[in-house]
Write a structure and sequence with these properties.
With 254 residues, the protein is an alpha+beta fold. The chain has 7 helices and 8 strands; from the N terminus they run H-E-E-E-E-H-E-H-H-E-H-E-E-H-H. It is globular.
């Protein structure tokens, strides 16, 4: 288990990487880490993610109230808190505006076509949330139905949010979203897409289940593609018809 000081260094490091790769500009974006059940370490508002120091970060409670730190809390902290509330498995969150993926979000186009097997294995699908004004309940309400079933979401006319078991995973998912968006854009420019078929998807679902389970065979009674070892329950997202080639996410495909 990392110390708070190490988590601060992690956020600074990945914030700098976001800035260097052009995934954020000016004071855009935010990152956070779950320290404990009621403490979230987050980037502050109005600060370049490429110029942060560990001491610039703030600690808030699950209501978004400042616990410690000299800077102000980001107006978008509510998005992070929503994800932490809905997903107990999540420990790190990255929100950024990678240009190509954000272009898809601004065009109202989800990244939900299974064009690349690695993306299907790593993320499943990347849905598009309806528009919500940043820093308001509109945004969290738009994200809420999608957070349980997916690990990365495009936000209409806004950007991307990705999350994982730690900040490194969240950041890598953000990179994957942008990389896939570039590939998808090329297919649009070529005027042709060739999504994987149902048979290929069925095989990838098996691979994904093992990948998300640390390479181990899935335990009996767990939902394929769930990735977090939960047993099937009424609250689990419903299976998706693979022939539709959309909506993979963390969902089961039969």
């Amino acid at each position: 288990m990392a110390t708070e000081r190490q988590y601060r260094e992690h956020i600074v490091r990945y914030g700098r990487m976001l800035h260097e790769r052009g995934f954020v500009a000016a004071t855009d974006g935010n990152l956070s880490v779950r320290l404990s059940a009621n403490r979230i370490l987050s980037t502050p508002t109005c600060m370049s993610k490429g110029e942060m120091r560990p001491s610039d970060l703030v600690v808030v409670d699950m209501e978004g109230r400042l616990i410690s730190g000299k800077r102000k809390v980001s107006s978008e902290i509510g998005m992070h808190l929503l994800i932490y509330r809905l997903r107990s498995d999540i420990k790190g969150i990255v929100h950024a505006h990678p240009p190509t993926a954000t272009g898809f979000a601004a065009a109202g186009v989800p990244l939900n076509q299974p064009l690349v097997c690695e993306v299907v294995i790593g993320l499943g699908s990347i849905p598009l949330a309806k528009y919500g004004t940043p820093g308001t309940t509109e945004l969290t309400e738009a994200l809420e139905p999608l957070v349980p079933g997916f690990d990365a979401i495009l936000m209409s006319n806004h950007g991307v949010v990705a999350y994982g078991a730690d900040l490194e995973q969240a950041y890598m998912k953000m990179e994957t979203v942008e990389h896939f968006a570039r590939i998808a854009l090329v297919t649009h420019q070529l005027g042709h897409q060739k999504p994987l078929g149902a048979a290929e998807l069925e095989k990838l679902v098996v691979v994904r289940a093992k990948y998300m389970n640390g390479g181990q065979p899935e335990a009996q009674g767990q939902a394929s593609g769930n990735g977090h070892g939960r047993k099937k329950a009424a609250a689990e997202p419903q299976p998706v018809d693979a022939s539709r080639a959309t909506g993979l996410g963390r969902r089961t495909i039969r």
